[in-house]
Amino acid sequence: MVTRFDLPAGFRWGVSTAAYQIEGAVDEDGRGRSVWDAFCERPGAVKDGESGRIACDHYHRYGEDVELMRGLGLDGYRFSIAWPRVQPTGRGAANPAGLAFYDRLVDELLAAGITPLPTLFHWDLPQELEEGGGWPARDTAHRFVEYTELVADRLGDRVPAWITLNEPFVHMVFGYALGIHAPGHAMMLDALPAGHHQLLGHGLAAALLRERGHQVLIANNLTPVWAATDSPADLAAAEAYDALHNRLFTDPLLLARYPDLSAYGLAEDLGGCVRPGDLDLIAVPLDGLGVNYYNPTRIAAPTDPGLPFTEAEIENVPRTAFGWPVVPDGLRELLVNLRARYGDALPPITITENGCSTDATLDDRFRIDYLSGHLTALAQAHAQGVDVRGYFTWSLMDNFEWAEGYEQRFGLVHVDYATQRRTPKASYAWYRDAISSHHVG
Q1: How many secondary structure helices (H) and strands (E) does the chain include?
Q2: Binding site members for substrate
Q3: Catalytic residue check, 353
Q4: Which of 23, 108, 130, 353 is catalytic?
Q5: What percent of the chain has a predicted confidence (pLDDT) above 70?
Q6: 219 three-class SS
Q7: pLDDT above 70: residue 40
Q8: C-alpha closest to that of 307 among 175, 226, 185, 191
């Protein structure tokens, strides 16, 4: 039996994917190299030496995948466009074959009654731009706008809304600060310009898209931050972590300012990378804020002198196959706190990612319980006054899970990577019925 969640009229149901995680075809039709192509070639960088070279072969099987989406009764599909497929070096003219693929995909989605919601950047920077400085270089923000224009010129007549960036926090921290994702740098706090320039690129691209009459969102990974205890040291550490993970990317977008980062020894100019006028460019009006939610974060006073916090374990809760704590009410808490913090400056919310990894079984009751719990929490946030407009679960199908290779399975659809056979799991049927039940009302 499916619960009918109390969500607003016009609520959009969808699924999310990302280009490098599903497309494959990395050497076909003029696609350039990305930072993930290079990163996967590093010994030990990715579990079992895997890569997205073939992934789910979505580039050739997109028609089959759209049929799976049609079977769910989706309103929307959030996917990403591979920058190096469109603009192989990150500069210059578009690659016609690359744009033609997304042209076909958009048309296929529309024919199935599914609204496309493209993400312009989901971590696959052209390798040539990375070699020229990557996101820590200000020029990359300007290259991003040129790429955005190429895509909008081709697809803009059929795409009503765009997501500029996916999880700039995660890309900055995992890719540039810690080096556990591509491009694999361990810059620690020197990675902050990569965050600022992503936001600058967002602002410049958003202005271009809005001038053309498009709606614009940005999606970030956000987390409720819990102090490990009520001690002043733990509370101060939690505040410092919240400033880095959440407010560093949301305050500039909504308030045109950076949060207090004095705990990191930084002023508002982030060490000099913020120039006069940048924050006004970043704070272009948003039509929606994309929230990617997976779990809360528990924080204690620092044990390492290099950072003002230490992450602590959340105890006595279920865990996904990835080891992530499952706390559905954290989603309600996060959204209600966003509303309290930003008030009328907060745009409508779309959950652009939420899901869990489980084992390879098709009878994925764990995922069904996970989705049901989080949709209940989302409905509770709506009842508490949060303007929620949609829910896009992660993910349509099992895929390449970045540095974890193919071990973690997040899909509603099982993928046999040896044969590329797609098999809907129990959660696929549950989600289809949940969507149908809501639409009937």
Answers
A1: 15, 13
A2: 21, 122, 166, 294, 394, 401-402
A3: yes
A4: 353
A5: 99
A6: strand
A7: yes
A8: 191
| The pLDDT of residue 3 | 72
Q: Which residues are annotated as a binding site?
A: 21, 122, 166, 294, 394, 401-402
> Do you know the residue count of the chain?
441
223-245 pLDDT tens trace: 999 999 999 999 999 999 999 99
Give the pLDDT mean for 402-424.
98
CA distance 234 to 223: 17
DSSP code, position 222:
-
Confidence band, pLDDT 50/70/90 cuts, at residue 4: confident
The answer to whether 362 and 430 are in contact (CB under 8 A) is: no
Rg (CA), the chain: 20
* Cα 147 to Cα 162: distance, rounded to the nearest angstrom: 13
The overall longest dimension of the chain from CA atoms, in Å, is 59
DSSP state of 307: S
Instruction: Assign 441 a pLDDT band (cuts: 50, 70, 90).
Output: very low
List the domains of the chain with CATH numbers: 12-440 (3.20.20.80)
Query: Which of 108, 130, 167, 239 is flagged as catalytic?
Result: 167
